[in-house]
Every structure is written in C-alpha cells, then in structure tokens.
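From: lab user (bench 3)
To: helpdesk
Subject: output format question, protein + zinc ion

Hello, I'm new to running complex predictions and I'm not sure whether the block I got back is the full result or only part of it. Here's what I submitted:
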Amino acid sequence: MTDALTVSRRIGPDLVDLRRRLHRIPELALHLPDTQAAVLEALADLDLEVTVGESLSSVVAVLRGRAAVSGERPVVLLRGDMDALPVTEEVDVDYVSQRPGLMHACGHDLHVAALVGAARILDELRDELVGDVVLMFQPAEEGPGGAEPMIREGLLDAAGRRVDAAYAVHVYSADHPFGTWFGRPGTLMAAADEIVVTVRGRGGHGSAPERTRDPVPVACEIVLAFQTAVTRQFSVWDPVVLTVGKIASGTVNNVIPDDARIEASLRTFSAEHRATAHEVVTRVAQGVAAAHGLSAEVSIGNGYPVTVNDVDEQAFAQGVVADLFGAERWADMVNPEAGSEDMSFVLEEVPGAYLNVSACAHPDHRDAEDNHSPRAAFDDAIVPDIAAALAEMALRRSRQLAGA
Ligand SMILES: [Zn+2]
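Helpdesk reply: Thanks, we reran it on our side. This is the complete output you should expect:
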C-alpha cells in the first residue's frame, strides 16, 4: 500500500537536494526572490492553485483532494517558513552559504524542503485526500513577520473556505538527539514585545540640580520599579520576563541631560498577562516620572503573540508522529519556551499545533550549538520525516473533519 512514509522515502533524496540548494542562497526578511523562485520551480509540475504575495514574497498553494465527501470539504493548512538570518556561517559542509553574512541558521531551509515534500506526497495520495490543503510558504519569521501580512492577503480563505486546522514543524540543531519530536499542549512560546521609555526632564549644570529636572535618577528608579512590579503584580505561575537591555542618557559627568531612554524586552506567556503588563509598564514609568515632576513617554512595539497549541490538535499531531515513527521518538516539553514565533497569528485564528523535531547533526546533542549560532548544524536526513508527518496530518485530520 502506498502511504505518506513510503512516498517520502522515495522522494527523500530530491528533498535533501532542494534543501542544500536553498542553504547556499539564504535570504532575509520579507523579500526572498531566489527562495520563492526555487519553491515555484519545485512545485511547477504539480496540479496546484498557486498565488504569490503582494507585499512579501510568500507562496500559497492549494492542493485539492479527490476523495469523495458529503458536505463541506475540510481545509487543512501546512506551514513552512523560508527566511534566513544575518549570521556568517561556520559550518563545514560542501553546501555552505554562498552569501557572506547570511545563513540558514534556524533551519528554515529544511522547513521549505519538507513542505515541498508534503505537497508531493499529497499529490500522489490525492485519491485518499478528503479535503483541500493550503500550503503556506512564509517569509520573515525572524522579523518583521510574514504570517500576519499573509493572513491579511487572504491566506486562511485561499481554498475558498476557511481553514479548519493548521500545523507547523520546526527543526532544532541541539536540545534532543536527532529524530526526537517534542512539544506540549497549550502555551508553547512567549509573546515578545519591545518597550521604549523616554524620560523627559530639563537639563542644566551638574552643580545645580535643583534648577533642573534630572532624568537620570528617575530612569534608574523606573528600571527598579519595573522589577518590583513584575514580582508583585503577576502570578509566578504565569511568568512575566521584563529585561532592560539598554539605558542611554547624557554626554559628560557635569551636565544634567534633558532626557533618558530605557529600552526593554517584555516576554509573557498568556494574552491576559501580556495586556496587563502593557498597562503596568506604562503606569509605572509615567507614575515614577510624575512623582519627581518629570514625564515619561512609553511606546510598546507589539511583537508576536503567545503561541498556543490547541489541546486536541496537539494530541492529534503527537499521535500522528507516534504512529509514524514510534512513541519512543516523542518527548513532552515540561515548560514553554521564552522565544516567540509568528505562526502564533495563524493559531490565534484557527486551532492547530506546532511541533518541534531535532535535526541535530552533532553526535552528542548536549555539545551541539543551538539554532541561530553560526555553528548550528542541521542534519537534513530529517526532511523526509517532516514531509511525511505534515502530509499524514493533513490526510488524517481531513478524514476526521469530514466524519469519514
Ligand atoms: Zn526558526
């Protein structure tokens, strides 16, 4: 019997070849013309409805199943992000990045190859596919974010009906032995926001502070008050991580400056605490400044929301992985990660699951370098497995949704 794994093993060498071609030509952010061209070429011989993004170089391909279904045809979305990082590669492989200062250091080249693989598997198994599949090739996961503009451009209705369930897989170069899948239900990753506080005072001579409004000690008080607020106003069971990474003010020791600038990153693990933290940060900064007769402007740059796995979808996706590869290749994540991910925008709209898998190329995962390191090495032997898992999720979930 032909199944997803059989097909993935047959086409595996082509997928690995595609991954290595992509690895040589990393591109950044929203506009990835060479990567987009490679994806379009890799899909060109398949019967798909393909659209490309207007404001970014995304690719959305709709693959229609041929199995009979009574009633609404389910729609499943599979996602692969495509962008690289501004890192100079130090991995010694013959397909090393050809672009100085750019590297696929987060393994998104494997994601693209795996999603192409899922498309090819589903194309061969169309007679068993009860619904339609939306293939989401996304730029700019590493910033400024590609999922949100793709949603604005109609991603979730690309098949003519709303997506019912969405899945994504991310590779890791460390943490677990090669081939281990891992994840958790509920909160998987943090929301990450950037905070800038500008304390506005009035500068003057260092010998006469009473004739100024000195922003420097006020900025210091705000930094300390932030830490007090984090520990006193939020439950430890729903953490808030607020890190002031930069304070800037002044020019020389005997001049009181006009203003001071505080830059912080805020990570939260629930939408509720994220909203509350925005209020608290603003109130504390403005309140402390006002107490000393100064003012503070607070600007909060919204990053990616909290990534939340639907409990049922997570159990389903985990079950597919266990069936295909054996339950011993699954590891539960005890805690969420403090990183963030813009698949969260999709998972805010439709239920779904985001799984991780180790592509660790090092013989001992404890000595391996993490994603984003110039020495992060990913073993692309995992690509056919990811392709099979994504295709199998689409096949099975469509059947379930159709009640078939
Ligand atoms: Zn990544």
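A quick orientation on your result: The chain has nine helices and 16 strands. Let us know if anything else is unclear.
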